[in-house]
Amino acid sequence: MKLITAIIREKQLDIVREALISADITRITVSRVSGHGQQKQEEIYRGQVFTPGLLPKIKIEIAVNDEFVDITVDTILMAARSKEGPEGEVGDGKIFIQPLEECIRIRTGARGGEAI
Q: Which of 41, 74, 92, 116 lies 20 to 30 Å from 66 when distance is taken between CA atoms?
């Protein structure tokens, strides 16, 4: 089992969610977060240009069984890019894959891959 965490642009959320549903991945958790990487965005406030420290982003978390890791990652990669083609733009986001030690469904007590 793996926990896949993706940080994406806010405007890409609906596209990514629809792509995941089309790939039969329907159980996701979505959070609004702030952060920054290499992306720089200048804004004008009272006539002065400044670069805000943190930008609004979306964090998607998906727990999957091992056989769904590649399809989940590939789906997010294709849907979250700002441009079509092999490369997107700075600020498109990141995907993290972590081992998931255990998953327990509270309602039934089911454990492991069965609970996902």
A: 92
